[in-house]
Fold:
Amino acid sequence: MPMEGEKVVRVQETPLHALVEGLLRASGADEPSAEATARAVVDASARGVDTHGVRLVPRYCQAVNEGRITQRPNVRFERLAPSAGSIDADHGFGHLASYRAVEHGVELARETGCAMITVKNSSHFGAAGCYARAAALQGIAAIGGAHADPFVVPHDGVKPFYSTNPLTFATPVADAEPLLLDMATSSIPFNRVLLRRVLGESLPPGVAVDANGDMTTDAEAAAYLLPLGGTDYGYKGAALAAVIDILSSAFAGMPHGNKVPGYLAHPFSERIPVGHFFIFIDPSKFMPMPLYYAAMQAFLDDLRSQPAHPGKSVMAPGDPEIAYAAERRANGVPVDLTTWGSFKTLAEHYGLALPETLA
Amino acid sequence: MPMEGEKVVRVQETPLHALVEGLLRASGADEPSAEATARAVVDASARGVDTHGVRLVPRYCQAVNEGRITQRPNVRFERLAPSAGSIDADHGFGHLASYRAVEHGVELARETGCAMITVKNSSHFGAAGCYARAAALQGIAAIGGAHADPFVVPHDGVKPFYSTNPLTFATPVADAEPLLLDMATSSIPFNRVLLRRVLGESLPPGVAVDANGDMTTDAEAAAYLLPLGGTDYGYKGAALAAVIDILSSAFAGMPHGNKVPGYLAHPFSERIPVGHFFIFIDPSKFMPMPLYYAAMQAFLDDLRSQPAHPGKSVMAPGDPEIAYAAERRANGVPVDLTTWGSFKTLAEHYGLALPETLA
Structure:
């Protein structure tokens, strides 16, 4: 997901992390919160997930500065059963609470084989894939998701009920990046609509609706999103969104998605609490690891060598991000000029230095 | 999923179950195998999932009679860790092995909060939702899936790699049917293509491809299916199919989907081993059950009362099946005449009586 057609500067990952962490610290976040949030958004940007990368930071700085996000959260883990746990995020950054969920979940899965952790009183956690990937890099497979304020209409409905409720799955691959699925349960994210507006392009059919809930390809008229599957098969995307909402709300002790107040519609001094969930699985409990790794490699080799349409190739989940990561390690992480401008303003305001840019 | 435009007879659920069990027993299946398989297919038919209901029985009778399916399987459960287990189906009916997975999984989840069970050396298990629903009726939420022989092309690919790899999720609702998602990760099942051929109708765009892997709306030319999301967003459906394949193969000790031999392409004396997986979650470990049930009810009430397009209503996952089940309890389960004819032939061959029909 590159920022097509946008001008960018490029910054190496380490100084970008330091800048983001510094801006969050200066905005009031304590060290663990700033570090975890910087880790997640720079990880997303480094892997090409720009929609959930560093461009979120100015908004996060505002949220932690104005009181939506707890500056020094008391993140508490409670083990509810041998394979069940809950994290109370204390209305701090969702990234910190989610990395904590990974820490505890990995430990529980190593002990029992499989464990679920819910997160409550949390906030936007950025890219869901960051947390599943973090588990998989430690040898533990993970499934996860989160709900948020509504802007996806349910199938046959005309009013938003779900957020884009992301679903993630990651599982270890020997000596390589984990296999990583990280998908919205809508066809597109809303900032894809915004991008089409800027470019003056229309939307494909079946991805968005206007303010009346009627399907539209006019990016200017698009007000909400349709679930994955569009007007014909959107009951599937909506059903996935429902499952993710339930696991993030009824199982976590949070209100369901369409009771979550609008993130941008409310002052940044108000809390917008949301829930997440993660399931962790230790492959070594199910299979001897050499056999598991051989099976994963056979799957990937076979999938990646499938015949494709001219000019295309068959990719495994996460392959595009692996390619982005390689390119960005070499050339730096692109930051769009709007975000870079915000970084500059914030850095000046807080007396921080901007890192060197590469382009 | 009714059998649109098809002539049917209607039979009450209990005598239909007795007939199916009798036919499977007469075809060689032992009592546990015949009972579990009859339970699953009659449950699917009773809830309107005709594609995975009793119409599969003549084929199952052939498979168990000709040696593909073990007639008296030694289904073995092994607890691999406190929250991990594996079932060896011994090449018997997938339905028996899957209901066994539910029995053990429910027990483990009650003990530890969350548990995963893989199933290996299994066979077609019918409708995935039967097993998640069976767990949810006992108060335990479940996620599950299975792979099979390939007839869905990967995104940008031209050759089938995945099966329709179903995903299911069920969770308890107080004094009511569980919420139940049961979906193929393709937009449509292949017998939807066959039905369009019979009706002389074309397919919607983005659901099927011809023998060259090119998208087609011609039902006669359609050879394989596209993943959910179609030509634009099919990488999402394909990624879901990949996850289900991996959990059913690398985690279960089975070859991945496109190494599974074609079900219909091989003689019914040959085995076609496949894997399944299930994750079980005890909501009571995460939330006091009154709070959980209240949250689920609030979710369902709110979702079902959402404004909809004229003549439509917003439904929760599984609501169509709840409506079918009510109608079929009243009027009997419809059996299409082709299947009924096969039942008649088999019943005559084995000296079994056909049950009374209602229409």
Notes: The first helix of chain B runs from residue 13 to 26. Chain B has three domains: 1-66+333-359, 73-187+228-304, 189-225.
